[in-house]
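User: Could you write out the 3D structure of this protein bound to nicotinamide-adenine-dinucleotide? I've included everything you need below.
Assistant: Certainly. Input first, then the structure.
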Amino acid sequence: MTVHLPWEHEQLVVRRGRRSGIPTMVAIHSTVLGPAVGGCRMKAYPDLAEAERDVLRLSAAMTAKFAAAGLSAGGGKSVIALEPGQRLAADQRRAVLLDHADLVASLGGAYLAGPDVGTGPDDMLVLRETGPHAVCLPESAGGIGSSSGPTAQGVLAALHSASAAVFGSPDMAGRRIVLSGHGSVGGLLAQALATAGAEVLVSDVDPATREVAQRLGYGWVEPEDATGTEADIFVPAAVGGIFDADTEVGARLVVGPANNQLVDDDAAEALAARGVVWVPDYVASAGGVVYALAREIDGVDHASATARVEAIGDVVSGLLSEAFAYGTTPHREAGERVRRRLNAPRRVAV
Ligand SMILES: NC(=O)c1ccc[n+]([C@@H]2O[C@H](COP(=O)([O-])OP(=O)(O)OC[C@H]3O[C@@H](n4cnc5c(N)ncnc54)[C@H](O)[C@@H]3O)[C@@H](O)[C@H]2O)c1
């Protein structure tokens, strides 16, 4: 099987589950800063090569996320690759999760899984049956449960810092904000922004959301118009791959949790050339994993873990002030920060 990506990863392990017969895989991009951490994605792919591309791309993004946030964790991701249209009964789901747990355990702690598209805290409890290699357990099992709350909190910290840098005030009151994706994170963001006095316009591909948005007093924007609608701030909280070099953007500032928002690095340059300030998604979206690692791995209390999430705002202030001072972009400055951290000399135990 050919994977058309630059090979810069430490490991890609693919195994067909002995219980389920379903292929599952783990990609470890980098353990330079610590054990690799990243979500376990369970979804249908057209073929296995597509699943491999996804897990490689996503694990590399996790390295950047941790390095930019100043955390001692590396980039990893895992995938349970279903066939198109495949639906799992409860016993099959448990079987494939145990298969995946075996694969994760065989890596001896080099990779820690968390929930992602298609998996949740209850699934992490199944992965824990064969070893301590999963985070974001259900609250009933002593874990943090869903990471949406701390993710939204990190995005809000990023929004306040970026607004201060771009508009001269962190205040959201009176700002016109278009938010794409009224899901778990987007719903919390819309609520917090509206409460802070912003004019919130929601956009979502799920038509049922329109009624919800109206009931909550938000405006509505059709999904195809979301990026181009005039606003102070655009918040991408749905899917990735939304900005290429030609995307029309109607907002001055873009900050949101959606992973991998840029089609490629040229998109960041094109946004900057048009006067749009884009806060890198891998910085703004780190709150969930920052909080989960702080509580479940480092064992710190809620207040200390929350302070680490809030520190995302300081990272954003630093990136924007450097980008404005040197005439570069927040994306380039974040990339520099990631490179510096990954290449910093380290003491090696002998
Ligand atoms: N949940 C977390 O803790 C977390 C952490 C980091 C990053 N993220 C990223 O943030 C984004 C949102 O996560 P979530 O947990 O809220 O997901 P979610 O599935 O709960 O919500 C996504 C919402 O986006 C809508 N949507 C899908 N495609 C769309 C499109 N093309 N245009 C407009 N709306 C669309 C869906 O209908 C849904 O309402 C995702 O990209 C996710 O990878 C989430």
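Residues 22 and 191 are 40 Å apart (CA to CA).
User: Perfect, thank you.
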